[in-house]
Design a protein that fits this description.
This is T9SS C-terminal target domain-containing protein. This protein is mainly β and 434 residues long. The protein is 12% helix and 34% strand. The protein has one domain: Pectate Lyase C-like (3 Solenoid). A hairpin with a 3-residue loop joins strand 15 and strand 16. The two termini are 32 Å apart.
């Protein structure tokens, strides 16, 4: 009887630790980065294109795995058309013409790859680099907070009609299709007049659109650029982008869960870049304040800066904050990991530190690791009020110092890294909370 009790206790301890491992940061009984991701995309040869996509696609079209497609210039899916892409299909963005794909408002993309056969958008160059081609735009008719509830994406695109680049409306349940098991590599080309493209722009996209298991790697612009709409994102990966990993603006209402941003201090734009920038507008006179501002609900995110020497990289200015929250934007972040930043979070200096504003910016059950400071207001080194607020035991936030090798299951693998937290780190964090 005594032995049975001991065995039961051991089993409960093991099971408890397994569940504890999944408590904060990205979750999953197995490493869901396996099979469909690629952390060395420049080492893959996708072959020469056999089909060219150009101009407007105005009738339902299917792209087949047996072909390799080239985006020549600005390609638009228009006229309520559906573009279907088979699992395993490769689409190359042309370097010379800044190839891009835009799913115009009212049209759909059905890009549903599989774990073993993902859909890949990548560069057509033999030696691929960040910013080789444009990117992917998905435009819907869900609300934004600009006056008139409508806007357009520019970036030097050349549509045959303004409608092809417009977005926004009043349909929160707008359905722009499916993006699932998709990789977007080496996008974000720079333009003279409009700055950098982004790998995936979701503008006015509604909540019936399915966006899961999308990996962006080596982008020169933002990895994920979300402009308005009501968007659900699950299992996103941003890997070694030069600009921001996730950018939210213009009244975005977004649920993002079980997602990852992996930053490198040695790959960054001239002004520095961060994991998440959350704003409600660029210019106040653009927006209608009777409409909701941007609100991001983030759960089980892992935001990690991979550095060879974090202390030295911070000293020379290569490491910035993980999150920047602008005035009139809201965030609720729960059960997430922020590791290796300087500091973890910065609030815009127009945000007054009071209970009314801080209730709109909530961090709970967080794991702050190896950051040079936690939460600060911009241009203010005294964060005592913020530390007192977010350090309150009611939020269950945890603060730690630990190397990546101690913190994550396997952050050093160049082929199949695993950024879930180690079991022993969670046990330590639970003890710290007590």
């Amino acid at each position: 009887m005594k032995n049975s009790t001991q065995i039961l206790c051991v089993l409960l301890f093991v099971v408890g630790n397994i569940f504890a491992q999944q408590e904060k940061g990205i979750i999953g009984a197995n490493n869901w980065l396996n099979n469909w991701t690629e952390f060395k995309p420049n080492h893959t040869d996708y072959g020469e294109p056999t089909q060219i996509l150009t101009g407007n696609i105005t009738k339902d079209t299917k792209l087949n795995k047996r072909d390799v497609y080239l985006l020549l210039g600005s390609v638009f899916v228009t006229d309520s058309t559906t573009l279907t892409i088979e699992p395993g299909t490769v689409i190359l963005g042309d370097f010379d013409t800044n190839g891009s794909l835009t799913i115009s408002k009212g049209s759909k993309i059905i890009a549903e790859g599989t774990q073993t056969d993902p859909i890949v958008f990548t560069s057509n160059r033999s030696v691929k680099k960040q910013g080789d081609w444009g990117g992917v735009f998905v435009l819907g008719d869900a609300p934004i907070n600009k006056y008139g509830n409508g806007s357009s994406v520019e970036y030097g695109l050349r549509p045959s009609s303004y409608e092809n680049i417009s977005y926004g409306g009043d349909n929160t349940e707008s359905n722009s299709g499916i993006l699932k098991y998709v990789r977007i590599e080496f996008a974000g080309k720079r333009t003279k007049d409009f700055g950098y493209f982004n790998a995936l722009t979701l503008a006015g996209v509604g909540n019936q659109t399915i966006i899961e298991n999308v990996m962006v790697s080596y982008c020169e612009g933002n990895s994920f650029n979300i402009l308005g709409g009501e968007v659900n994102l699950n299992k996103m990966i941003s890997y070694r982008t030069s600009s921001n990993d996730y950018e939210f603006n213009y009244g975005t209402l977004c649920n993002i869960s079980n997602s990852l941003a992996i930053r490198s201090p040695y790959i960054s734009g001239a002004d520095g870049s961060i994991c998440m920038h959350i704003a409600s507008y660029d210019k106040k006179d653009e927006v209608d304040f009777t409409k909701p501002g941007t609100f991001v609900n983030a759960e089980n995110l892992t935001l990690v800066n991979i550095s060879d020497n974090l202390e030295a990289d911070i000293k020379v200015g290569l490491v910035k904050e993980a999150l920047y929250i602008d005035q009139d934007a809201s965030l609720r972040m729960n059960k997430s990991v922020i590791s290796g930043f300087n500091p973890a979070v910065i609030l815009d200096d127009n945000i007054k530190v009071n209970s009314e504003n801080l209730k709109k910016i909530r961090f709970s059950e967080m794991y702050f690791n190896n950051c040079n400071g936690n939460i600060f207001t911009k241009n203010n080194s005294n964060n005592e009020d913020l530390e007192n607020w977010y350090g309150n035991s009611v939020f269950f936030n945890v603060y730690s110092k630990g190397d990546d090798s101690e913190t994550f299951i396997d952050a050093t693998s160049t082929r199949r890294p695993d950024y879930r937290l180690r079991i022993n780190k969670i046990i330590a964090s639970n003890a710290y909370e007590d």
